[in-house]
Write a structure and sequence with these properties.
381 residues; alpha+beta; Aminopeptidase; 9-stranded mixed sheet; 7-stranded mixed sheet
C-alpha cells in the first residue's frame, strides 16, 4: 500500500505517492472533469445529473483523482455520504437504481497492478483524512472493467463477491442467427398473435412527450404487478419518478434513454426502459398489462423487439439487468460477475466490514449459507 503524506486544503488531499484526490460536493462542478473518459452507461452525465438532482437526504461526494505532478485527471468516483444506524457511510451514487457502479477513467488510462493498488489506497486514505470522520466505505456492484480498462477499485475486494450479477447476451452481427437460436420461445408466433390486435405495432419513443406517456403506463402496470405479488413498489414515488423522467428528458432524443412499447388500439400492452451507451444496452424495467394478453408473452416480446431495433443501430451487447429470472437464460444471457468492496474508515466501521465479508464468504458455500439463513429465520421467530 502506498504511504501518503496528507495535506488538507479546500477539499484537496495531496500525496507523495503521486496521486492527488480532490473532493467535490456538487455534481455540476464535477461533470466537466473527465467528460470524455471511459465509463459505463450508469456514469453517463444524463444519468448522474438526474440522480443527484432527484435523490435527497444524502450528501454528494465526488472524488477526482489526478497526477500530482502534472495535474492530469486519472479517475473520478461519483459517490455520496449519509448516516445509517449511526454509522457514517460513503458509497456510490446509486440507492439501488443503477445496475453497476464504477469510477470514470481517463481515456489514456493505463493501469498495472501497482497502479490499481496505489489508486485504491489513495482514495481510502484521502477519505480517512477528511474532517467528516467517515466510518465505512461500501462500493457495490462493480464491473471488473470499464470501457475495456481494468477497474482499479476492484483491487480492494474479491472479484465476484457481489450477490448480484449482470446477464449479458452477445448477439453477434447476424441477428437472424441469434433469433433462430431462440426457437423454443416461439417469438414469431407471439408476434403473429399480437399483430391480430387492431393497429398493433412496436414503437420506440422518439420525443419526451411519448416517453413520458410510456413511463406513466409502466408505473401503473408495474405497481399492479407488485401488488399482486405482495411486494412493495417504490419506482413511482416522487424521487424515482422524477429521476426516470429526467433521464428520459435528457436522453431520448439522442438514443441514450430507450423507452419502447407494444401498442394497439386498446392501449399500451407492454413497455421497456433501458439505457444505451456505445454498443451496449442495459435493460432496466419491463412492464405489461397482466393476464389479459398473456398468450403472447408481451413483456418478453417487447424486450426482444427492442433488442432487434437496437441491433440495427449497432448494439451487439445486451445486458438484461441484475437478477436471475428465468427469461434471461431463455434469451441466452450469460452471467457476468460483479464485485462488492467494504473498507473500514474508522474503528466504528469494522463490525460492518466483518459482517459484509462473512456474508460474501457464505455465498461461496451455498449449503452453509442456506443453513445460516434457516438458523436466522428460526432465531427471529
Amino acid at each position: 500500500m502506498a504511504f501518503l503524506s496528507l495535506e488538507q486544503l479546500d477539499g484537496r488531499v495531496s500525496s507523495t505517492s503521486g496521486i492527488s484526490v480532490d473532493f467535490l460536493r456538487d455534481w455540476r462542478q464535477a461533470a466537466s472533469r473527465l467528460h470524455a473518459g471511459h465509463r459505463t452507461a450508469f456514469q453517463h452525465d444524463y444519468w448522474l445529473a438526474a440522480w443527484y438532482e432527484a435523490f435527497h437526504g444524502v450528501a454528494p461526494l465526488i472524488a477526482v483523482m489526478s497526477d500530482a505532478a502534472t495535474g492530469r485527471d486519472i479517475a473520478m468516483v461519483p459517490m455520496i455520504s449519509h448516516t445509517r444506524r449511526g454509522i457514517r457511510v460513503v458509497e456510490f451514487a446509486d440507492l439501488d437504481v443503477s445496475d453497476n457502479n464504477a469510477p470514470i477513467l481517463a481515456c489514456d488510462a493505463t493501469f498495472d497492478a501497482a497502479d490499481t493498488r496505489a489508486i485504491s489506497a489513495a482514495l481510502v486514505d484521502a477519505l480517512r483524512a477528511l474532517p467528516d470522520r467517515f466510518d465505512l466505505l461500501r462500493l457495490k456492484k462493480m464491473p471488473a472493467h470499464v470501457g475495456g480498462k481494468p477497474n482499479p477499485l476492484v483491487s480492494l475486494g474479491r472479484v465476484g463477491s457481489c450477490s448480484l450479477n449482470g446477464n449479458v447476451v452477445l448477439t453477434g452481427d447476424d441477428y437472424a442467427d441469434y433469433r433462430a437460436s431462440l426457437r423454443r420461445l416461439q417469438l414469431p408466433r407471439c408476434w403473429r398473435v399480437f399483430t391480430r390486435l387492431g393497429s398493433a405495432r412496436f414503437e420506440i419513443a422518439t420525443d419526451v412527450e411519448r416517453a413520458r406517456e410510456f413511463l406513466d403506463v409502466m408505473d401503473v402496470q408495474q405497481e399492479e404487478r407488485m401488488r399482486q405479488l405482495g411486494s412493495p413498489f417504490v419506482l413511482n414515488d416522487d424521487a424515482h419518478a422524477r429521476f426516470y423522467r429526467e433521464v428520459a428528458r435528457q436522453g431520448v432524443a439522442e438514443g441514450y434513454a430507450v423507452i419502447s412499447a407494444l401498442v394497439c388500439d386498446k392501449g399500451i400492452v407492454a413497455s421497456t426502459l433501458g439505457v444505451r451507451y456505445g454498443a451496449t444496452y442495459f435493460l432496466l424495467r419491463i412492464s405489461h398489462s397482466g393476464k389479459t394478453w398473456a398468450n403472447f408473452s408481451p413483456g418478453l416480446l417487447a424486450t426482444e423487439r427492442t433488442m432487434e431495433a437496437l441491433h440495427e443501430q449497432g448494439v451487439r451487447r445486451f445486458d438484461l439487468s441484475i437478477g436471475n429470472q428465468d427469461y434471461k437464460r431463455r434469451l441466452g444471457a450469460e452471467r457476468v460477475p460483479l464485485t462488492d468492496v467494504s473498507v473500514a474508515l474508522s474503528w466504528r466501521g469494522l463490525p460492518f466490514v466483518w459482517r459484509d465479508h462473512a456474508a460474501q464468504g457464505l455465498r461461496r458455500h451455498p449449503r452453509l449459507a442456506a443453513l445460516a439463513a434457516r438458523a436466522m429465520g428460526k432465531a427471529a421467530q
